[in-house]
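thread: overnight batch results

M.L. [08:02]
morning all. the overnight job finished for the chain we discussed friday. pasting input first so we're all looking at the same thing
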Amino acid sequence: MTNVYFDNAATTQVREEVVDRMMEVLREVPGNPSSTHAVGRTAKSHIERARKTVARILNVSAGEIIFTSGGTEADNLVIQSAVRDLGVQRIITSRIEHHAVLYASQEAAKTYNILIEYVPLKKCGTPDEKALESLLKDSDLKTLVTLMHVNNEIGNMIDIKSIATLCKSYGALVHSDMVQSIGHFEVDLQNIPVDFIAAAGHKFHGPKGVGFAFVRKNSGLKPQIFGGAQERGLRAGTESVHNIVGLETALEYAYKNLDEERAYVLDIKEYFISQIKKEIPEIKLNGNCSKPDKSTYTLLNICLPVAIDKAMLLLFQLDMKGIACSKGSACQSGSDRGSHVLQEVLSEEDIVKPNVRFSFSKYNTKEEVDYVISILKEFLISVPA
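M.L. [08:03]
and the structure it wrote out:
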């Protein structure tokens, strides 16, 4: 076995059905969706059908779905406009958010001189809901709360309905980066009182370069990209028809097969946990990733018992053995600063050890798990702590 892809939190393999549908659109739908002739109207109809599909799955109206280039753009659209156009004077977030949220919030605070406050974390790494309520009580400033549904590095899941309900009781706007949860969990946005969410197609076996924002009706949000009137006036630029259709197809298949594929992937994860604990008893599991009710079934973050001077060798060794995984999010892979998430949740002793994220999909097998664990064990024997 020479190639194992355990980095599905970074991006997923595109389903064959999605590739086929995208190729069909590329070949047969050449028009610009903004053109008024028949060829253009055909392209536009594909986009609007996709919009209705996404809206139906999330139980919202089609006009509340805005297609973007991905989750990062959707996060920026919401955060920047909320401050600039909706009168937000304070952002409450956490220090373990994706950098698309952290950096967009910091830039908005610097540009518009607003306040950012960070919710304290529980020991496991989940934002403390009681501490959040204290922050909400402490100020009458118009507030945007932005907390991710599923953390992309340690897999922790928040009770988004409970948190959104709490925030709305204090009159706050609510945004959630749902990039790691859309396509993997049922999300009924009529039942979850968020104002905005962000999602990305490539996290649920769709294409890269396309995602969407959910923008609650009459929110008052305004565009960050100016030009034409595409995407209800909120996102100028000619739409990528084949990518949008690819996202639609991937999302349909994700929810059509959700129960079956979720059970399969959870079984892979639980097998990984049981086997690695057996073979490497000193292993530690970071965050809540071993708790099925408090973590995503797609992700596992482990801390290996290896000294700091040996830690840098591990990912190189895994890569040489054909194993794709991550020391943090893929967005940080070129950085030597390490994971900002793990820095918030691990002890000083554990943060210098190799901490590795393995993330799974329907395309993985238990045989791959066995191979990876054998390589980890081999490494620990050859490079002792």
